[in-house]
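Hi,

I'm pasting everything inline rather than attaching a file, because the server keeps stripping attachments. The sequence lines come first, and each chain or strand is labelled.
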Amino acid sequence: MTLISQDSTAAQILFSEAKRQQEGLELIPSENYVSPAVLEALAGPFINKYAEGYPGRRYYGGQAYTDAIEALAQERACELFRCEYANVQPLSGANANLAAYSAVLRPGDTVLGMDLSCGGHLTHGHPVTLSAQIYHFVRYGIADVTTGEIDYDALERLAQEHRPRLIIAGYSSYTRPLDYARFVAIAQQVGALTLADVSHLGGLIAGGALPNPLDAGFALLTTTTHKSLRGPRGAMILTRDAALAKQVNKAVFPGLQGGPHMHSIAALAVALGEALQPEFSDYAHQVLANAKAMERAFHTAGVSLVNGGTDNHMLLIDVTQHGIGLTGGQAEQALEGIGLTVNKNITPYDPRGPLDPSGIRLGTPAMTTRGMGEAAAARIAEMITLALRSPADTALQASLRAEVMALCARFPLPTGH
Ligand code: DSN
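And the predicted assembly:
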């Protein structure tokens, strides 16, 4: 029985979402479109299986194929990220970070993490999180809002003052490169461990378009699997250190989670297989080229980006400025009206709150998966500028909506929905 004949109410909602995705464009930098093969694996037989434990050491029977698929995902992850140990069970990025913390920290230990408003993540020590209740987070920020540069001297001073057990590098809305070697040097001075949360950059590192923090000596790397890596929702914890790998495995299961989501791990194995192909490296480089094309188009239109530009797949715009004069929430809504999905986002040291901040955040992984190149990226930036500068011009908005729909029809989703 198909979904439509069994449950037309749910089927209609799924159909509407598929149509929304096809006829509009996801510009949220943490989103992407999976391949038909990934989708097939995700909806496959592993959805029915419990598999507490790890390959070769499970607490339930019937594991011949769960072991095989999880080992395949681990091997592929290790090959892509040039490491020896991969835990592929974290259910998502926040769980992966919490597991990594509990693997190496005791309650009350001090951690240095990046401030949320400067581009860090909630799980890097924001007071509303459970981690912030368990550990003592000290947060660093950027020194210069025009370049986005981190003040590494200040970071070093903070490290010496607070003697953290762990230093985190990584971000969810930061557009400039990180000096991974400098982080490692600072950590070594104070005897801290290093964790790179590359949730946003996983696919770009796997595709060889950005450096791998493990190569600079980072002890632990966490990444989600559904952003630039283009897999199912989930996350991984990677390391080259056998002792840390053991601690991580214990922390994920039984420390934090129960049965792994084997259907996601199966789909992850497929996605990692795709990421090992040469075309994926082309994809990763094109993601960056498209972001640069958008940056140039915005600058031409007089819209300068937060941090002065981008060196990855993300772009941040302060929409209260540049002849726009909207809040982040208003800008998000205006763009949704023409079929472009973005997210409102705080800007460094934002005077506004996170529910209606000063900025919007854009990204190129999803558009690049659809096959769009630099010309399309530049035109999208122009359309965004036009739409945001004249949100009340209904004729303009209608013509931009038609143009976005035509563009999306030329570049269908890989799953053909
Ligand atoms: N929600 C993810 C993002 O959009 O960056 C991180 O939590």
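The CA atoms of residues 119 and 173 lie 4 Å apart.

If the labels don't parse on your end, tell me and I'll reformat.
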